[in-house]
Amino acid sequence: MSGRWPIVVAMLAAVACSSVAAPYREYGIRFDAPAPPSLDQSPSDGELIDAIAWLMRHRLDLPFPADIKAYVYVNEATFVDGLIKIGGEKIDDAWDRGRFASGVATRVGLFLRGDYLARTHLVGRAGLFAHELAHVSQSKLRAGGRGRPAQWILEGHADWVKFKVLDLLGYRPYAESRDTVVRAALGSTTPITFFPDLQALASSTAWTQSVNRLGSPATYGQAFLAVDWLVEQYGSAKLMEFLGRFALDADPRVHWGTVFPIPYRQFGDNFRARLNGLGRPTPPAGAGSPAASPPSSSR
Ligand SMILES: [Zn+2]
Asked: What's the number of domains the chain is made of?
């Protein structure tokens, strides 16, 4: 029983910290280790973040700002307060972004809900860190430029990075993650026919409204499948080039046409046809079976 006291003291200390709006924990994120940090069976959040950041920098060639940190908070109120005071978010934006989020990316790094992390399994935590770090990298890619890519591309790319990282960590093969997203789309309470077109998921406001109204498969799932297909056809280097062009002092509307050989609207239409095709009967999924990837677009 006496062993409980240090835990209680630690919790009291955390609560005391939170009352002055400081993060419960704070990590400087390291990218420069000579080799990928090795992880044991139950890595700490800090170890996991460093390993993921290293893989994203050195295996996926994603750029990052020089000094970023991960800030962990004990609850929603301190989390939102941290977004305002350390992340530099406006008060309304901080509440919008922080209210239902378990993690948020800003220019200075990752803001995380420690209470959520404490009850999330390893793969879930790794996925959250990778998704949010992808957003940090996207901000670096377009720093100083005009405009921003459509929200479906940003979110789809963040989940694409997440699934690549889970594969690189040996936690889950990429094809299995994609298969899970396809199954979630097919089983979605919003039928695929009622998924919004990609063009309707361009602004962050429309994105948030659609997530709340239609759920994750219609938004995050669809956006990931679209980015996965974009990469399958043109390669990840083209996608990186596209995201990086927003750093230029140029009309953001010309970037797609400069990078991809297919008009934006045409890609959206082709993807829509492919998405609708997912609803047709497919053979049961099995290890290594053709059902591991979505049906081909010609159907
Ligand atoms: Zn995101």
From this structure: 2
